[in-house]
Amino acid sequence: MAVPPFAFQDHWAQPLSSGDLEEICALIYKRSGMVFGEAKRYYIERRVSDLIRQRRAQSVRDYILILRGDLVESELLINSFTVNETYFYRELHQLECLSNSILPDLIRSKGPGDRIRIWSMPCSSGEEPYSIAIWLLESWPLVDSYNIEIVGSDIDTEILQRAVEGYFGRRSLSRLPRNLLDRYFEPEQDQQRRLIGDLRESVTFTKGNIVDRHSLTALGGFDVIFCRNLLIYFDEDAREVAARNIHEMLHPGGYVCLGHTESMSRISETFEPVRFPDAIVYRETREL
Ligand SMILES: C[S@@+](CC[C@H](N)C(=O)[O-])C[C@H]1O[C@@H](n2cnc3c(N)ncnc32)[C@H](O)[C@@H]1O
Fold first, then answer.
1. Is 124 near ligand 1, meaning CB less than 6 Å away?
2. 39 and 173 inside one domain
3. Which domain holds residue 212?
4. C-alpha angle 101/103/109, rounded to 5°?
């Protein structure tokens, strides 16, 4: 029986039939690579119920029909299923590796003033690309000798908007030393801080889907890609597609940093692990 939208309550989750659940999960997978299924039934029902309420759809079937024909609607669905957990200076050893090993290696084939392109994919609310910018300003003595471009991308359009605005709460900032908080952030209400304008402008944010090559083409190639804590949400097939796209987005000899539970070893042969003193990262293996 269809339940009219006005009868939905805030905490109420619309039960989904197995078929409807399967169809919604298949759509999320096709559009993002993220794997959901029966095991997350309650989580899925809560989110879908919220969306049904917001759309004022008459029923789950009604909502699925809207979803099938409407790309904006499926973008909202994906936005509500993403896990955006992130914070400044996460896995700091990789930033140390960037300035101590990766960049010194990359500049062997570059001259002063040349571009170095770094991609944070996925960037969530911006903590990762902004951390890279702060780290390089603080820790890489050659930062002014090269034209460093930092790009942040994510599939989630709402979280990208938050990244651009640059407001952060205590949890997000908890790993940053006090002197950096004072230097790069302005105090705001409710214990929030806002990143200073110069740094907000130093990162370009743009929507991108790691399993959709077409959504990435306009971004050009990168020397270093931070792809951390994304592959964990994918199955083997989606990881392989992501690895292929990462490979295509890398300049020859470029580097990839993954999250600490992630690895390229089973999904792609086009990267070799490189053990630097601070971290193990992956290098693209085409001949330079
Ligand atoms: C846990 S966050 C990781 C953020 C950051 N890299 C870090 O490690 O702190 C995962 C992010 O992946 C994004 N995401 C999920 N599927 C994606 C896809 N197919 N393409 C790009 N981003 C995706 C989500 O929107 C979310 O912001």
1. yes
2. no
3. 92-284
4. 115
